[in-house]
Amino acid sequence: MPMQPLPFRQQDPAAPAYRRGWVDEAVAAIEADQCRTADTHLIRLIVPALAGIDIYLKDESTHPTGSLKHRLARSLFLYALCNGHIREGTPVIEASSGSTAVSEAYFAQMIDVPFYAVMPRTTSAEKIAAIEHYGGNCHLIDDGRALYAEAAALAARLNGHYMDQFTFAERATDWRGNNNIAESIFTQLKGEPRPVPDWIVMGAGTGGTSATIGRYLRYRQYPTRLCVADVEHSAFFDCFRNQDRTQVCERPSLIEGVGRPRCEPSFVPGVVDRMMKIPDAATIAAMNLLTRRLRRAVGGSTGTNFLTLCRLASEMRNAGETGSLVTLICDSGERYRQTYYEPQWLAARGLDPAPYEAELSAFLETGKPLSFTIADVANPQNSRGDG
After folding, report:
1. Higher pLDDT, residue 143 or 210
2. Of 166, 288, 316, 297, which Cα lies nearest the Cα of 227?
3. Any idea where the domains of the chain sit in the sequence?
4. CATH (one of 3.40.50.1100, 3.20.20.140, 2.60.120.1440, 3.50.70.10) for 68-170
5. What number is the average pLDDT over the span 50-55?
6. What's the cofactor (predicted)?
7. Which stretch of 20-29, 129-138, 246-255 has the lowest confidence by average pLDDT?
8. Which of 55, 129, 282, 384 would be a feasible disulfide site paired with 356, CB 3.0-4.6 Å?
């Protein structure tokens, strides 16, 4: 059954349009959700062939709405409420390929405001159903390049608030702490053999989570490095490599949740130590392999993260280094049964994960170095000068 909204007081017809009491109640309701669901599991993946290299997976799929975007949606709603953008009855509009919209629909229902998700028509049926389950409205468009403009136009027509995750993701989250995802990772690692990871791997969707992690590492003066994984048909990697935010990509990414046609305002290249651009077929291969090892399905963006982590682990093993690596399980694979887990869907798009899957499997079973080529660039400005 859909979640019932909290029993907010009825609007007094004589009251002004802005009622502070309603905002207080809305913020309290969202904060209560955070207290109930603040932390997610940090799973250690046991790989005997990589003795001395510890692999951890922060499982964001266990949030109430099933993905990493639950954190972002919570932060965006609190930011909009506390800045006076959302008031009682204000329609909320978002441009989203799916998971953010699912999470925002959840919070909109919680505080009893209308929600509209503007998304490409190609968004998975499972995500559309999830948005509608939480009372959201799906506004589907054919041209993904018009996503931002259509969301802004719909907000104007409805006299609503355009949440604009791609602009506000990096500023809505408290990167200094307050149980953000970076602080949560380090807290959970305290009792581990190697509590300060060598690398944290994060895909780029809005850019907000990588910005939070990168800033937190600097704020807390950790030596941990941040590697951001990008995908095919996405502008982030070229933006980082060429130091040019005007980079664009005409084709949409096939991997939902990561990859964007432009370098989004929330992407902060200066806090990123290294980037890799992962072929879509390699993403699917890593997704399949991790699904078998965990005995439960993970989503495509998790495959992107895991392939990148394995490349770093391969480098460390070749160099005789020990240490720990952390990445995210972004969401469950149940939302992608008709796409990434469907052979006909993959074949229609020319994706053959088998060669990548065989090599990755050999690496995890025997430690045999990974040899396939991945576009890779480091940020020379982030060298600490300590050799």
Report:
1. 210
2. 316
3. 37-64+175-374, 68-170
4. 3.40.50.1100
5. 97
6. pyridoxal 5'-phosphate
7. 246-255
8. 282
